Amino acid sequence: MANRTLVVTKRKRDFGVLTDLSKDLNQMFGDESGRTVSMRTTHGFKDSFNLQEMHDDDAEDLVHGLMVLTPILLKQKSDTANAIGVILLAGLVGSYLNGK
């Protein structure tokens, strides 16, 4: 396994009550790190795709976009859109789990 260096960058954003709710939800899932669901998913996403050089805020924007797009695709009448939504959902869950 290759040596990897995690680039830790200070977060520039706080979404107030949404951030607090997300941290609480993440803690309910057993994560005691103090991160939000989005940030844990972001860290797993970055690790999965070897994107350690990407700033956390940029990666989190991408993850948020996928989180918004997934239910939209799942609600479509198109089987293709639904299949893509299922794949994105699996990827998001996998990234969350990988974001230990």
Description of the structure:
Helix content is 63%, strand content 0%. It has 100 residues and is an all-alpha fold.
Summarize the structure.
With 100 residues, this protein is mainly alpha-helical. Helix content is 63%, strand content 0%.
In percent, how helical is the residue content? 55-70%
Structural class: mainly alpha
User: For the CA atoms, what is the radius of gyration?
Assistant: 14 Å
Weakly predicted, low-confidence segments: none
List the helices and strands and how they pair.
Blueprint: H1 17-28, H2 37-48, H3 56-74, H4 79-98
Helix pairs in contact: 2-3, 2-4, 3-4
Name a few traits of the molecule.
100 residues, mainly alpha, 4 helices
